[in-house]
Design a protein that fits this description.
about 350 residues; two-stranded antiparallel sheet; alpha/beta; 6-stranded mixed beta sheet; globular; about 45% helix
Length: about 350
């Protein structure tokens, strides 16, 4: 039950890879795949993308202090649903590590009985205030583009017309990915986590617990607030189909560990439009903990990484590729503190 509250506040957050990237949160293993680039099929659904071969995957980022090493696996998505994962390198690193650092995240845990009392407040939380539709809250040019894409990817979903742009963007992205045979990176992430559990590593979480004492008031404010999130949907639409068409090349660049190609990807524009609209809204003006949740979770992760580098000969962590490349991200913060950071060869 408690999980029901979280998506309202964390829809564009840490673990949810941005569409342009991908959630959230790189090191790995021999992962891989050679992806066949296919042209979009005529008609409403793009031709599906398939993986036809395995190949050694991306290398591991190395953060070190003396002889102590933190190995970081960079997760990427969306990926073709048939992508096969070869994990020899990452398996070896995990087997020889003493601790696993999970990615920065935020969570809300109001308790079972309190979560039941919050359920009525959650009704309508995805909808635009005052019964407005997407036509009402979007510029005419953007709504015309939305109508075209909706007809192509969401022909039978009329309920989405009343959702806030930030949620409509999520629904549209998911539908387009599914038609193209793409999935988020959670399947690959799950395989890595299973390796961690098999090795029985100590797991350290960097999850910032959101305060829930005032949850009912926060939900009420959120439901009546205008988010200014039309830009989120506009940006999603602007890059949606080119992202689908280029997905195989991008996934292949990741699988081969092609850092130059990965650095050319636009990791930030859509995430800033969506996450910024959510966190800068008036709904959270009286809740600074919500506005600062990303920074708080990242600070927790950095502190955990420093403790692990002090205590362990080898530590394994998993982050999104965009977090690793971020000049203001957690890896850059460790480098600024004097730790040695080496990218894969």
């Amino acid at each position: 039950m408690s999980k029901l509250v979280v998506p309202v506040f964390c829809i564009c957050m840490l673990a949810a890879p941005a569409w342009a990237q991908s959630e959230d949160v790189a090191v790995p293993a021999q992962a891989a795949a050679d992806v066949v680039d296919t042209a979009a099929a005529a008609g409403p659904a793009p031709e599906q993308i398939h993986v036809v071969a395995q190949r050694p995957g991306p290398g591991l980022w190395k953060v070190s202090k003396g002889e102590h090493v933190l190995w970081v696996f960079g997760m990427y998505g969306p990926v073709p649903k048939d992508m096969q994962w070869r994990s020899h390198e990452v398996e070896n690193v995990i087997r020889n590590s003493q601790e696993y650092l999970s990615a920065p995240s935020a969570s809300a845990n109001p308790g079972f009985f309190k979560s039941i009392t919050l359920l009525p407040s959650l009704i309508g939380v995805r909808k635009n205030p005052d019964g407005a539709t997407l036509r009402d809250v979007m510029p005419a040019e953007d709504y015309a583009r939305w109508s075209t894409l909706k007809a192509k990817y969401l022909p039978e979903n009329d309920d989405v017309e009343r959702e806030r742009p930030i949620f409509a963007a999520q629904v549209l992205s998911n539908a387009a990915r599914k038609q193209a045979g793409l999935i988020d990176s959670h399947v690959l992430r799950k395989q890595v986590v299973e390796l961690v559990k098999k090795a029985k590593l100590k797991e350290t979480s960097s999850t910032f617990e959101l305060p829930m004492d005032n949850a009912r008031a926060v939900l009420k404010n959120f439901k009546k607030s205008t988010l200014g999130d039309a830009a989120c949907l506009a940006r999603t639409m602007a890059t949606l189909e080119q992202d689908i068409e280029a997905a195989s090349q991008r996934a292949n660049a990741w699988a081969k560990g092609d850092l130059d190609a990965m650095r050319k990807l636009d990791f930030t524009t859509r995430e800033e439009a969506c996450f910024g609209a959510l966190m800068n809204s008036a709904a959270f003006d009286a809740e600074p903990e919500f506005k600062n949740m990303k920074a708080r979770a990242e600070a927790m992760w950095i502190a955990s990484a420093e403790r692990a580098l002090e205590a362990n000969a080898s530590t394994f962590a998993m982050l999104r590729v965009d977090e690793i490349f971020d000049p203001k991200g957690v890896i850059a913060a460790l480098a600024a503190k004097g730790y040695t950071v080496e990218q894969p060869d």
